[in-house]
Each structure stands twice: as structure tokens, then as C-alpha cells.
């Protein structure tokens, strides 16, 4: 007879994503997960595995719901540099205003925690980073094709630099950085490469 779940694993995982995103995995005890989801420990463990497995599932869910769609939109945007500007403007808005303000990015937060030593987490972080760099590289090559980049600008190198800038925005926003200051920094960086 198949095991019948008395809760919605998808809804539980969504609650876990938000909990780990807001508080961090290290600061979040399993009892907080139980309280937030309303699911017993035994049911959580039976469905997701231990806390580290649950964290990895939350990271994967975050990538699917948040990162991958944003990177796909960026990579496919035909406008070039205006798309990069919009990407950062939206990133700063999300990180500094609304329901997720001061949460940073679950993936950027994962880079700074002890769980990043876990090989499965490290692989996910590397894949995420490469996806971000690839999206930025794609849109920067579009910018180059539109003759929007300053002479001598290497789109591949700048893609890596802008990926690091995105991580910086995510981390600084967690500590309450001024959105206008973040935007000024981003615009200053982009101006270095614009024609």
C-alpha cells in the first residue's frame, strides 16, 4: 500500500525556501521548520531527508523559481546594455523593497555559509554562478553587436565582473544598504564599459 502524505510537499518546500532565505540555514533549527510548515519532523525527514537534504532541495527550488527565469530573460533580451541595467535595477528593487527586503539571495547567502563545503551544495552554487555568467555574457555579446560597448571591452571578462557585482548587491542589501548607493555603484560600473 503506498504511503499517503497528509501534507502538500510542494507547499512545505516553498515555506522552507522562504525560511532558509530569510534566516539562513545555520540560524534555522529543525523545530522552526516544523513550526513554519506545520509538518512533523518524521514526515519532513521521510519526504526530504535530513536538514542538509532539505536545504539542498530548497536551493534547487529557489534556482528553478527565481534564478533560472531571471537569467533566461536576461540572456534572451535583444536590447543589450539596457537589459543589463534593468537586470540590476530589478535586483536592487527586489532586495531592498517589498516582502523579501534584506533577505539577500538564497544562493549568495549559501556561498557564505558552512553548508557550501557540502559537495552537492558546492556543485549547485557553481552551476548557478556559471548560469549567471553565461546570461550576462550573452547579453553583453548582444551589446557588442549593437556597438554599445567601449572599445576594447571584453564581454566575457565583464560578464564575470558583473556576476560578482550581483553577489555584492545581494550581500550588501542583507545588511540594509541604501538602494540609491547600490544603484549608483552599479551605474558607475556599467558606465566603465558603455560607449
TrEMBL record:
PROSITE patterns per record: HTH_TETR_2
Residue ranges the UniProt entry marks as DNA-binding: 29-48
Transcription regulation in keyword set: yes
Pfam families in UniProt: TetR_C_13, TetR_N
InterPro entries xref list: Homeodomain-like_sf, HTH_TetR, Tet_transcr_reg_TetR-rel_C_sf, TetR_C
Domain HTH tetR-type intervals: 6-66
Keywords annotated in UniProt: DNA-binding, Transcription, Transcription regulation
Signal peptide: none
Domain of life of the organism encoding this protein: Bacteria
Name this protein carries in UniProt: HTH-type transcriptional repressor ComR
Source organism of the structure: Streptomyces rimosus subsp. rimosus
Amino acid at each position: 500500500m503506498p504511503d499517503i502524505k497528509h501534507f502538500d510537499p510542494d507547499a512545505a518546500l516553498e515555506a522552507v525556501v522562504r525560511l532558509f532565505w530569510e534566516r539562513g540555514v545555520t540560524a534555522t533549527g529543525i523545530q522552526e521548520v516544523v513550526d513554519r510548515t506545520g509538518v512533523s519532523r518524521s514526515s519532513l525527514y521521510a519526504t526530504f531527508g535530513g536538514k542538509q537534504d532539505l536545504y539542498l532541495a530548497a536551493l534547487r527550488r529557489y534556482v528553478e523559481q527565481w534564478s533560472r527565469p531571471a537569467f533566461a530573460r536576461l540572456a534572451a533580451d535583444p536590447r543589450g546594455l539596457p537589459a543589463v541595467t534593468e537586470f540590476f535595477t530589478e535586483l536592487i528593487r527586489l532586495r531592498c523593497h517589498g516582502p523579501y527586503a534584506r533577505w539577500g539571495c538564497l544562493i549568495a547567502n549559501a556561498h557564505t555559509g558552512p553548508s557550501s563545503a557540502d559537495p552537492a551544495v558546492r556543485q549547485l552554487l557553481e552551476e548557478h554562478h556559471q548560469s549567471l555568467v553565461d546570461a550576462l555574457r550573452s547579453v553583453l555579446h548582444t551589446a557588442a553587436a549593437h556597438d554599445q560597448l567601449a572599445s576594447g571591452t571584453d564581454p566575457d571578462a565583464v560578464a564575470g565582473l558583473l556576476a560578482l557585482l550581483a553577489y555584492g548587491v545581494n550581500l550588501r542589501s542583507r545588511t540594509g544598504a541604501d538602494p540609491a548607493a547600490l544603484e549608483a555603484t552599479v551605474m558607475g560600473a556599467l558606465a566603465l564599459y558603455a560607449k
